[in-house]
Amino acid sequence: MNLQRSLFALTATAVALGAAPDARAFSIGGHLNETEFHNSGHEIALSAESRIGLPGYGEFELDIHGINDNGGFYNLDQDQFDWVSGEAVDFSLNFNSTAQLLTYTVGGVDLFANTVENAFSDLFVRTATRKAGSSMVVNNLKIKDGSTGGAFVDIAETAEFACTVAEECDSFWESSQYLHIDDVVGDFTLTGQSIMSWSPDNVPTRSQLAYQIKLIAGEAEAPTPTTAAIPEPTSAAAIAVIGGSLALWKRRRQA
Q1: In total, how many domains does the chain have?
Q2: What pLDDT, on the 0 to 100 scale, is given for residue 220?
Q3: Are 87 and 68 in contact (CB under 8 A)?
C-alpha cells in the first residue's frame, strides 16, 4: 500500500513537472491621442458608441456602426437613451464568435449586430468632448476572453477626457483619448461604467460628448503550448523513477 501511494505521488509530480500551462492574457497598449491613433494604422471594423445625442428630437444616443470606404459610417443598430449629468451608467460589450454576434448593452438597453468578422484582437476605448465644462469618463473596466479562464479581470486603467476651456477641445484632433486593449483572444465580454458630465450653461449635443469602443478585426496569437514531446530533465527523471518502481512492484507481486 505504501508503494502504491508513493507511485501516485511520483506520477502527480511528473505530470506537474511536464505540464506548465502558459495562458497568454490580454495586455494594455497604453493611451493614445487622436493623432497617435490615426498614425497607428489600425483599421476599424466596427464601433459601439454612446453619445449625448439630441434629447427630445428622436435622434439616437446609442449605436453599433460600421465604417464606409469614404470614411463615413452606417448604423447596424441604434436606440435612444436619456443621460443624466454626472450619473454612472453600466455597459457591456459581448462578442460571440460562433454566432458572429456583437451585443452592446447600456443601462439595460440592448443593441445587436451581426458581423462578418469572427475575431477581434484589439479594442480601443475612445472618450471625447468638444464643449467647455464637460467631461467623459469610462472606468471600472473588466474583461474576460479566451485567455482568462472564464473569469473577469480588472483593467487598471481609465479612459477619460475633460474640457475646461473651449480652446482645449475645439479641434477634433485634440479632443479625445484612446485606451488600447491588445491581444484579445476569442469570445470576449468587456464591462464598465461611463459618466457623462456637462455644464447646464453649455450643453453639448450629438457627438460633442461621447465614448466609443472601436474593434479591430484580427486574431491574437494562440498561447504556445509548453507541454513538449521531449520531457524536461526533471520530468524525465521522475518518469524513470516511476518506470523502475513499477517494474519492482510487479516483480514483488509475482514472487
Answers
A1: 2
A2: 76
A3: no
pLDDT of residue 172: 58
> Rounded CA gap, 245 and 101, in Å?
54
Residue 87, SS3 per DSSP: coil
**Cell numbers for 147:** 485567455
Whole-number pLDDT of residue 194: 98
Q: Looking at the structure, do residues 239 and 192 belong to the same domain, yes or no?
A: no
Cell output for 213: 469602443
- My answer on whether 96 and 185 are in the same domain is yes
Alpha carbons 9 and 242: distance in angstroms, whole number: 10
Domain co-membership, 234 together with 190? no
Residues 178, 36: Cα–Cα separation, whole Å: 9
Residue 143 CA to residue 25 CA, distance in Å, equals 10
Mean pLDDT by 10 residues, the chain (255 residues): 36 34 71 91 96 88 92 92 97 98 98 96 95 94 94 94 77 79 96 97 93 94 44 45 46 46
Answer for the pair 25, 150: CB distance below 8 angstroms, yes or no. Answer: no
Do residues 178 and 131 both lie within one domain? yes
The answer to whether residue 24 is domain-embedded is: no
Q: Do residues 242 and 156 both lie within one domain?
A: no
